[in-house]
Design goal:
alpha/beta; binds ligand PMT; Rossmann fold; 420 residues
Length: 420
């Protein structure tokens, strides 16, 4: 199917777009326009602070609806009052959400129209934080945001980068295009996502993906690990979800925001990753092992911090970790298993030997080392598999962003999966 068959899945959706007072409020004008273009009917609710950054007239012109900003206004209540607005909403999206509005929402305040609507509306609620990076990293703001998440709010961003105040860091409002993409993704059915993605045949299937490194404890403060950032695995998870799959991501410790709509199981060690993989695989259709699992772990985990002592050398006794993807491929014969092979030499030879030794359906050969693959935003790989005559087949994917690569790899993986 082609990308032109994109369904305007926000068609007819009633969206209350809350705009609070931050410099990113100017981006909300574009957001309103894009949401309308995606088929939604939008009613903008502005806080008092938002008026300092953008005028109601802008939103009125863009949405074709009058803008709401007053709680205790007899005229407004006689038209569409706060309870009607709360009931009318299919979605509530607050963008930008300042630290102040997040704090008021997290504490159940109903001291203006926007916070009152949020309390009175049963609709799914989304928050796009926007503030200075120091404010965003403040534990009070983080605790307020996490509190809202525990009450079912979904977080959209924030993004990293240069800020209006000149700081660089996390706290920028997500770009309007990304917000719309995330809303489309989280409100659409598997079939709609599949249709939009252009990748077919995976709608409704369960895909389990491992990502990131594992950490193998040495003592209470040290561990063995590797440079995996999780970017490849997370990009695969986002692309699989966008293609209509139900996705479980088993993630080692990484600094990434989980993609919208997927289930994340956080683990630390290889043994925990294996336990999670076993319990998630019983009803799965496809298993993709993108994690960089530590092959060994310390035989003993010291109860207390290991002391330096007087010797100039020290040795460590290691034991082999279980091979997760080989175990899963062995235990779940009908599961379609795809591995990655991270190699510093004899790439295709070593990768094809892992394909057969681990009894995988496909393997992604990955040249690593010297600044390649690990913790990079882009990568180039070769996909290997055996055809029906047991002849080795290969397809090379050129250097590109891991997100683009993930989409292309999944297209090829799903196509092969369907021939099995
Ligand atoms: O996370 P990023 O920074 O984006 O980097 C991505 C990546 C380079 C980590 C990823 O693309 C990748 O290549 N992952 C596999 C890394 C690896 O450990 O390769 P390997 O050749 O050692 O292992 C082969 C396969 O067996 C892999 O699918 C691995 O997940 C799996 N394995 C390995 C050891 C083990 N004990 N259990 C496993 O399941």
């Amino acid at each position: 199917m082609s990308a032109q068959t994109a369904l305007p899945t926000l068609q007819g959706k009633h969206i209350v777009l809350g705009v609070s007072g931050g410099i990113a409020a100017y981006k909300s004008a574009l957001l309103a326009r894009l949401l309308k273009k995606a088929g939604a009917d939008i009613k903008v609710v502005m806080t008092q602070g938002a008026h300092a950054f953008i005028t109601p007239l802008t939103f009125q012109a863009l949405t074709g609806n009058s803008v709401h900003d007053t709680l205790l206004d007899a005229d407004a209540e006689a038209g569409m009052g706060h309870i009607e607005l709360a009931r009318w909403a299919d979605l509530v999206v607050i963008a930008p959400a300042t630290a102040n509005v997040i704090a008021r929402l997290a504490n159940g305040h109903a001291d203006d129209l926007l916070t009152t609507i949020c309390l009175a509306s049963p609709a799914p609620k989304y928050l796009a934080p926007a503030m200075n990076q120091q404010m965003w990293s403040n534990p009070i703001v983080r605790a307020n945001t996490e509190r809202l998440e525990t009450f079912g709010w979904s977080l959209l961003g924030p993004d990293d980068g240069e800020q209006a105040c000149g700081d660089v860091g996390s706290g920028r409002m997500l770009e309007p295009e990304t917000i719309v993409e995330r809303l489309l993704s989280s409100t659409s059915s598997p079939a709609e996502r599949a249709s939009r993605s252009g990748i077919s045949g995976i709608s409704g299937k369960k895909v389990v993906i491992t990502a990131g490194p594992t950490r193998e404890a040495l003592d209470p403060v040290r561990y063995l690990s590797n440079y995996s950032s999780g970017k490849m695995g997370y990009a695969l998870a986002a692309a699989a979800y966008a293609a209509g799959a139900s996705v479980t991501l088993i993630s080692g410790p990484v600094q990434l925001e989980p993609p919208t709509g997927i289930t994340v199981v956080n683990v630390t060690s290889a043994e925990q990753m294996l336990d999670a993989a076993r319990s998630e695989s019983s009803d799965a259709d496809i298993f993709i092992a993108a994690a960089a699992v530590a092959d060994f772990r310390p035989q003993q985990v010291a109860e207390h911090k290991i002391k330096k002592g007087g010797d100039s050398t020290a040795s460590l006794e290691l034991v082999k970790n279980p091979d997760i993807v080989a175990t899963i491929a062995g235990e779940y014969a009908s599961l379609f298993c795809v591995g990655f092979a991270a190699e510093t030499q004899s790439l295709l030879e070593n990768a094809s030997s892992k394909l057969t030794r681990k009894k995988l359906d496909m393997i992604v050969a990955n040249q690593v080392g010297e600044g390649l693959a690990f913790d990079q935003d882009s990568n180039a790989v070769t996909l290997l598999w055996q055809d029906a005559q047991q002849t080795l087949q290969q397809r090379a994917f050129p250097m590109q962003s891991k997100h683009q690569l993930a989409r292309q790899l999944l297209d090829a993986i799903f196509a092969h999966y369907q021939t099995q």
